[in-house]
Amino acid sequence: MSPSATAPIVNWDALTPVLIILGAGVLGVLVEAFIARPARLAIQSTLSFLAILASGVSLFLRWGEVKAAGAAAAAVPQFQLPKGFLPGARMSAGLTEDPFSIAAQGILLVIGLLAVLVMADRTSVGDGAFAAQAADRPGSAEESESILAGWTTTEVFPLTLFSLGGMMLFGASSDLITLFVILEMISLPLYILAATARHRRLLSQEAALKYFVLGAFASAFLLMGSALLYGVAGAVDYKTLGEAVSSAAGQDWLILAGLMLVIVGLLFKVAAVPFHAWSPDVYQGAPTPVTGFMAAGVKAAAFLALVRFYYMIAGAMGWDLAPALWAVAALTMLLGTVVGVVQRDVKRMLAYSAIAHAGFMLIGILAYSKAAISALSFYALTYGIATVGAFGIITLVRSNRDGSVGGEDGDLEAFKGLGRRSPWAAGAMTVFLLSFAGVPLTAGFMAKFRLFAAGLSGNGTPVVILAVVCSAVTAFFYMRLIVLMFFHEPAGERSVVVASRGPIILAVSVAVMATIGLGVLPQAAFDLFDQTAMLLP
Questions:
Q1: Residues near 458 by Cβ (< 8 Å), separated by ≥ 6?
Q2: What is the DSSP string of 4-32?
Q3: pTM score above 0.90
Q4: Which of 42, 208, 321, 480 has its CA 20 to 30 A from that of 264?
């Protein structure tokens, strides 16, 4: 057999948006090797920002081509189309380019752009969120020297780009091997990023270790499930697996075990109960810009990957899987809501809020309809934008001891009187909290409305009712923070709001406008995501 007969078929045009991100990540590594430290922050942040913009332009061009291909395919009589054909779809080495994967990449590019801006910020006191040099032992003389020299860990930018590139591919994964490899591609940079906090370094390193250990469990579950499914079908691609799951007889228990283990591996990444234990500690300990990136990006990427896996494979056994998954969704909402109410740290409060939102988003998986896919995509976008913006505000609230500005002060007491100390920060945080709560005229309200409506159509009425109740309860701890910011006197001089030098202002302003805009005029986004919900015939 000639070498050309076994050569892989790679659609380089379809991979261009991701290759731009990964190529910029490689250039970022070279910047770390050859550029002097004082110039690295400006170069790395600019490179990352421009790479995401360039990737967005490339993705827009790909969207036009895929739409044209879909229109051409629609003109062909159905009996002439190959079995399993999806209009506009192109396969390439375990990856699928179709309207859904392009929408998923667009969502993650928006989240990545805002996250990079927050990471790039230097405050008025001259520091950022990241350690001067991550390799220094906390409290050592070496660390003091690095801080005095004005260094910062700019390696976070290429690491972020590598993780973002993996996130963009996650929703396009169409075989189990690719799914696992990309899961590791997303996770490994995040394990490092979680340990790079400038303040409370030991807590940051503990968070990274917890994330790594429990992330390894997630990978193990996914691998075991993949092995079982391969044993049934003799293949790892979604199309063959879907056919095997639909037609297999006498092996239901093996298929169910395999499907459930793969789903558990993905539920770890979205912090669904009972796989949530890592989330509050990691969110609290990681550098706040990284927390925002994880909370928004990883959750969106994992849910979008879960959509493709469930709708193309697991949905064929939906009657068997549904009871367990509805139970997981209900427990996730309840735990995130109840435990979130008693939190005194804002980052931990938002961590439990994220758990509750994961329960809401599971409704979009289990509703099993095109409307649910569209609603879940819109929810991932709106939740991601508000999350990055909220954590961007948290980075500016710092402790103040004897006139010396320290690290972030995440205690609720630190946010008392924030509306008087910084009306802009308090106003922006209010918009994000109202969106999380699902208050009308915010993007969060429209996202919840569409998602819950899809759940009602998908025979999920009891869980949707529970979701509405949990939404009302979560509004309590969001409103509590708003009341503290605007209706209480500042808590002495225990905290200050440091000024951003620009990037956080830009990121938060864009996030506020998007949150209000998608809440007031959401129809264009609805129409766009309706075009991408094509995983069901």
A1: 363, 366, 367, 368, 369, 372
A2: HHHPPP--HHHHHHHHHHHHHHHHHHHHH
A3: yes
A4: 208
